[in-house]
């Protein structure tokens, strides 16, 4: 309830308040929409299973959940990079902000994030689409994802796990490094200008964004080595509002 109401409040507030029609709030509303979709994809099913004790999902339902999960997750990663770009332009090039972050640029960045998320998800499923499943049918998680899904196959999955890990690791580490570089550029730019209180203001502006990035990317980067099934799916959508 907290996740749904909090993110819905952000979406409706930004949509209907003309004073919030700026690039920063445009990206924030779309981030809340993605978090809303992520939470409603997994949490209601988990609550229903815990309440009824009937913890099952069809094979087709599991595949659909994996596909949508990776579309949303990949899109959110790229959208976080777009938000970091927005903050970089706002802090380091304020006089050019409205020119650089035009409505066309914002829509292009948003469309690109969804396109990359879709391509990432399709690529993941292509890797595992031909696997034979004839044995175990239980996964140690409350939602379907590729690390557990692949282990149910009736064949050696070492190479497949490596390919899936490499794909997810590439988009996770790539976007995380872009975010890290953008933060460094912002802080160095503010420091070089020797603005009184500039660094503290920059940290204040970026602190919430950095916290969410760490909570989101930490599990994504290490999920194949040390599973964190609840962190990125539940905590990040709660903290976003």
Q: What does it look like?
A:
- One of its GO terms (molecular function) is olfactory receptor activity.
- This protein is mainly alpha-helical and 241 residues long.
- The protein folds into 2 domains: 1-88 and 96-153, Rhopdopsin 7-helix transmembrane proteins (Up-down Bundle); 156-226.
- The protein is 76% helix and 0% strand.
- The protein contains 9 helices and no strands.
- The chain has helices spanning 2-16, 23-52, 59-92, 97-100, 103-128, 146-150, 158-193, 198-222, 231-239.
- Helix 8 (198-222) packs antiparallel against helix 9.
- The chain is globular, with a radius of gyration of 20 Å.
- The relative contact order is 0.13.
- Mean pLDDT is 78; it is low at 224-239.
Please render the helix and strand layout as text.
Layout: H1 2-16, H2 23-52, H3 59-92, H4 97-100, H5 103-128, H6 146-150, H7 158-193, H8 198-222, H9 231-239
Helix pairs in contact: 1-2, 1-9, 2-3, 2-9, 3-5, 3-7, 3-8, 5-7, 7-8, 8-9
In helices, the fraction of residues equals: over 70%
CATH-defined fold name of the largest domain: Rhopdopsin 7-helix transmembrane proteins
Low-confidence stretches: 224-239
CATH architecture of the largest domain: Up-down Bundle
How large, in whole angstroms, is the Cα Rg? 20 Å
Sheet with the most strands? none
Helix-strand category: mainly alpha
Mean pLDDT: 78
The beta-strand count equals 0
Give the CA-CA distance, first to last residue. Answer: 13 Å
Q: What is the tally of helical segments?
A: 9
Keywords: Disulfide bond, G-protein coupled receptor, Membrane, Receptor, Transducer, Transmembrane, Transmembrane helix
Main location: membrane
GO molecular function: G protein-coupled receptor activity; olfactory receptor activity
Subcellular location: Membrane
């Amino acid at each position: 309830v907290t996740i749904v109401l909090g993110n819905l409040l952000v979406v409706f507030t930004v949509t209907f308040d003309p004073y919030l029609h700026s690039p920063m709030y445009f990206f924030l509303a779309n981030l809340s929409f993605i978090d809303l979709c992520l939470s409603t994809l997994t949490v209601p099913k988990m609550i229903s299973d815990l309440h009824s004790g009937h913890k099952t999902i069809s094979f087709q339902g599991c595949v659909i959940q994996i596909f949508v999960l990776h579309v949303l997750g990949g899109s959110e990663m790229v959208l976080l990079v777009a938000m970091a770009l927005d903050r970089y332009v706002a802090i380091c090039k304020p006089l050019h902000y409205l020119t650089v972050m035009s409505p066309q640029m914002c829509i292009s960045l948003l469309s690109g994030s969804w396109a990359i998320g879709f391509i990432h998800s399709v690529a993941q499923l292509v890797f595992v689409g031909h696997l034979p499943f004839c044995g175990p049918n239980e996964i140690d998680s409350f939602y379907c994802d590729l690390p557990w899904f692949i282990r149910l196959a009736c064949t050696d999955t070492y190479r497949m796990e490596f390919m899936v890990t490499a794909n997810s690791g590439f988009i996770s580490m790539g976007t995380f490094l872009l975010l890290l570089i953008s933060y460094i550029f912002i802080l160095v730019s503010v420091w070089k200008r020797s603005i009184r209180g500039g660094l503290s203001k920059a940290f204040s502006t970026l602190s919430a964004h950095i916290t969410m990035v760490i909570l989101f990317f930490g599990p994504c980067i290490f999920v194949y080595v040390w599973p964190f099934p609840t962190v990125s799916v539940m905590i990040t959508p709660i903290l976003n509002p």
